Amino acid sequence: MEKVNRLLNNEEYREMLSCIQEAEKERIFCRHDMRHFLDMARLLHIYCLEEGIKADKPLIYAIGLLHDIGRAAQYKTGEEHHTASARAAEKLMPDCGFDEEQTKTAVNAILSHRSGSEDKFFKLVYKADKKSRLCFECKARGECNWPKEKMNLEIEI
Ligand SMILES: [Fe+2]
After folding, report:
1. Could you tell me the domains of the chain?
2. How many angstroms separate the most distant Cα atoms in the chain?
3. Distance 67 CA to ligand 1 centre (A)
4. How far apart are the CA of 141 and the centre of ligand 1, in A?
5. Pick from 109, 111, 128: which is nearest to 43 by CA?
6. Measured between alpha carbons, how far is 48 from 37 in angstroms, rounded to an integer?
């Protein structure tokens, strides 16, 4: 099985995913589910193509699948999810066949996905994460703690 699907079917990954699903059952804000993970990966792929950044598709999809998976730890212990997600990437990616360089890039992309970075690729990771959210039609927007500059308030073509 190729790397991304090994990750998708990894037992530990599935467990974290179910834990998030359970914790977010009643959540009124954006959920951290497979739809978001794939929307983020697909946008990131498009942005890379548009910006002429050589797109390593398995790496892009690994970042999509993993960047918020640390929400599982966050709901259990209160740890911030980007550090927990980075730790999960560091452990699971080599088990799924990703090499050291891909793992390192994913870990750093995940660590900066909430705050942004000067790096061109990491900037796109940040943007894809925010643009994959439909803030412009979210009923809970008024109660959301995201600052306005993070919100996706218009369709960008
Ligand atoms: Fe996200």
Report:
1. 3-150 (1.10.3210.10)
2. 44
3. 6
4. 16
5. 128
6. 17
